[in-house]
Amino acid sequence: MFSKNTKNLNAKSSSPLLKNQMAIRDKMLFAFVLFYSLAIIVDIILAQISDGNTTIISFFGTEFDDFRFYLHLDRLDNAANKTFFLPTKYAQAPLFSLFYLFLNSLLNSSPSYGSYDYHTLILNQNINMYYLLIFAAFFVILGIIISKHTAKMKSQLVGKVFGYTLILSYPLICAVAIGDLSVIGLIFVFLFFSGYESKNAIIRELSLISLAVSIGFLLFPILFLPFTMKKRSKSITIKTLVYCMVFTLIPFLIVLVFDKKESAELLPTILSALKKSFILPKHKLDFNTLSVANIAYYPIIRNIFKDKHLFASVLYCTTQLVTLVAIFATKTTWKKVFFITYLIVNAPGFSTQAMLAFFILPFILFITDEKNRTKVDWIYTGLFALLLTPLPTILYFWQDSLSSWANKNSISFELNLNHILNPIILIILMLSLTIPSFVEKIKTCVAVAKSNEYKTENIDDVLRSKEASI
Amino acid sequence: MKKQDFLAIPKNALKNETNAAKLTFLIVFGLCFVLTIIMAMITNGVTFSVKFFGTGRFSDTFMDFMNSIRDSSQVNMYRTRWTIYPPLAALFFRFIGGMMSQNSVHISFSGRKELLIDPIAMLIFMLFAILCVYLIFKMLDYRMQSEKKCLLAKLCAFCLAFSYPVVYCLERGNITIFCVITAMFFVFFRNSNNKFIRELALIALAISAGLKFYPAIFGLILLAEKKFFAAFRCIIYGLICFFGPIIIINAMDTAILSSPSSNNEYFENNATSISYMVSRLIKNLINTVKNKAAISNYSYVSIQQIFMLAPIKKLLQGYDIPKICSLAIIISEVIAGVGFFITKEEWKRVFLLIYIILNIPIASSVYALSFIIIPFAIYLYEKRSFKSADWFSLLLMSILTSFIPIFTTLDPKSIQLLPEVFGNTIDICPQKLIAAIVFQTLFFTVMISSISSLTEKIIEIRKQRKQRREV
Fold first, then answer.
1. In chain A, where are the structural domains located?
2. What is the pTM of this model?
3. Which alpha helices (H) appear in A196-300, and where do they start and end?
4. Would you say residue B7 has pLDDT above 50?
C-alpha cells in the first residue's frame, strides 16, 4: 500500500544529493510526528487522570465561561438578527457573512433567536448537523490538499502520518472546539498556492479564483495578492482583482441589503470594526491572543516598563514593521508566506488560537521546499511542532499554587501551555527567520557595493591607461 | 501525481462503462443533494431535519454516542442498563467517559441530554465523527484510484463518504460507523501484497466484530477464498477482542467496587465476574432480539418491513403475519447465504453478506445501510461488461445512498401531529419509506443476475462437454 508511490519517487530522485536531502527531510518529519504523538499520548493520560479538565483547558482555556462552539453560535445569532456589522466586534468578511446568512436560511425558526440563548442553540439538531458536516467536508478537502503535498516525501508512511498530524493539529482542533468556521478559508489559500504556478491554464485560473474567494471569506489573504505579480504579468493581477471584486463586493452588497442597520449608521460601524481589527486595544494579559503585544504584560517583562500599553504598542508596531520589511527582504516563498501570516496573526482582530492553522501552509511549503537542509531547519521544525501540537497541560497539577501566585501579582491566570507559549514561539520563529534574511541581504548589499567599488577601480584604471595612451 | 492528472476527466469517460457508472452515480447524487439543499432553504431546514429526526423523534441527535458513554461507564453495566454493546465497544466508551467529568458521566437517565452540552463529550464526538468520515474517504479513494487517478473517482469517494446512510449514522452517533471503517479495511486490504497490511486487515475484522458482533459474518469471505489459516487467526483475534476487554472491564469494576470511594452515589450494584458479564450480555441480546422482532417501522430495511406495508398487510389479512415475517427472514437469509457461494463477482458477494446482516431486525436500521458503501465502491471500481441488471443495481444503490429530496413545504407542528393521526408507522421521509423496498429489490436483482449468470455458465459448460463428446 505504501511502497507503490515510493518506488516512483525513488526513481525520480536518482541524484544522491537529493536523496540525502529527502532523507534529512523525512527525519525532520519523523521527529515532528514523534513529538506530536508523544504529546497526544500524554494529553490523553492527563485527561484520564484529571477527568477531562486538562482537555478543557487545552482547547477552551483556563478561564472558560462560554459554551462550546460559541463563535459559531454567536455568528448564527448575528445572521438571524440580521446584524452583520457591529461596532463592538471585529470586521467580518462579506462572503463569510453571506455564508452565515445561507446557513441561517437552512435553520428552522428557533425561539432562541433574538434572545441570545446558547443553551437552546446548542441543542438545535440542525445546527449540530450542519456544523459537523461542514467541518467533516473541510477536513476531507484539507486532507486531500495536504496529501498532495506529502506525496513528495521519500517515506510514504511518514508522509501519510504527517498528513494526519497536521489535520489533527492544535489550531484545527481549537477551531472545532470554539466554532471558528473561518478556518475554511485555509482551503482556498492552500488551493491558490497549489496552483498559481501551474502550467495548466485551468488550474492557474482556479487558483486565482480560490485566492479571490479566500479574500472574500477572510479579507486578510489580500496580502497574498503580490504572489500573482511574480511573473510581472499585469493581466493576471487585474484578473485576480476582478475576481476579488466579484467575491467581495457582490456579497457585501447582498449583506447590506439584508442588514438591519440604517445606511447612515453602516459606514461608521464598518470603519470602527476595521479599526478595531488593527489597532491595539488597552487590555491586560489576554492569553487567547497570539499578538506580540501580549508579551508586554507577561510576568517579569511587565515590571520593566511602567506604561505597559505604550510598551505593548511600541512592540506591536516594531514587529509589524520588521515583518513587513522582512517580506521584501526574503526571496524564499515559504518565508514570505510565513511573514505575511505573522503580519496578520499579530493584528488584534485576527489574533486567535485557531488562526494558527494558517501556519500549516508555510510549514508545508517549508517541508516540501527542495533546498539544502541546514541545522537551523531542525530549529524551525521544532518551533512549528510546538505551535501545532496540543501541549500537555502539566501546569494543571500546580493549579492552586499558580492561582494564588497570579492573584497576588494581579496577573491573568492561565494553565494552557499553548496559550502561554504561542506568542513567544511565534516571535522567536519570526526573529530566527528575519535575522538570517537581513544578514543575507546586508551581505549581498556589501558584495554588490564591493563589486561596484571594483568596477569603479577598474574604470579608473581604464581611464588612467587611456590618459597614458594619449 | 501530476496536477494535470488530478483534474482531468478521461476523454473516453463515457465510452468506458465503469466511468459512465461513476458519472451516473455522481449525477443522481449531485441532483438529489442540490434539490435537498434548495428544499431545506425553502422550508427553513424542516425537510432536512425530517430526513434524520423523523416525524416524532426530536432532539435526539448524537445520543447513541452519549448514551453509550453514560451506560458503559456504570459499574456492572450489563446489569445496570441492559446494554448490548460488545465488551470492546463498552471499553471504548468507558475510555472516553474517563476523559469526562464524572458528574456528567454518571448523570441520571432523565437528564442524559445534558451530555450534549458537555464541551468535552461534544468535542470528542465531533473529532471522532470527522475522523471517521475522513478515514472512509481515504479508504474509498485508495480503492477507487488504485488503477487510474482521476477527479471522477475522487468525487465518487467524496460523495460516498457523505452519503445518506453515513450521515444518518453520524446523526445517531452510532458506533456502526467505525464498524463500517474496519470492515471496509478488511474487504479492501485482505489481499494486499504487504504481509503486515494483510494481517492488519484480519485484526480490523476482529475489531469490527468486537464492536458490533454481526460484522463477523465477513469472515465467510476468508472461508470462501479457502484461506483457512487466515480465518483461524482472525478467530483468535476476535476472541482476544471479546475476552480482552471483558477482563479489563471486570478488573476496573472490581477495583472501583473495592476502593473506599465505591460507596458514593454512582455505584449501586456490586457482584461482578467475567462469567456473569458474559451470561448477562447474552441474556440482554436475546431480550433485544425478541423485542425487535415484533417491531416494525420505517427505520428498518429488513424483509419483514415489506410485510408490514399497508397493501400487503391487507392481502395477508387473517394470516399470522409475525410468523410469515420470521419465515421470510429465514428463507431470504438462506437464499443470500447460498447466493454468496454461487456468485463470483466481488461486489455481489460483499453485498449478500451485508444483506444477511441487515435482514436481521435487530441490525436492520436505515443508518446501518452505510455498510452498502463497501460493495458500491467495489462496483464502481470493478472493470467489467455491464448488463442491464447491473445498471438497475446502480440505480438502486444510488437511491439508497443519495439524499432524496422532500418536495413539500412542511410545517413542524403538523409533522409532529402526524404519528398521532396515522399511528406510529407513519414517516414522511421518502428515504425511509422506500429504503426497505429498494434494499429488498436490490437483493432480488443481485440474486436473479447471479443465478442467470450461473445458469449461463452451466449451459456453456454443457455445450462444451457436448462438443467434446461429439469430437
1. 66-275, 279-470
2. 0.88
3. 201-218, 234-258, 263-278
4. no
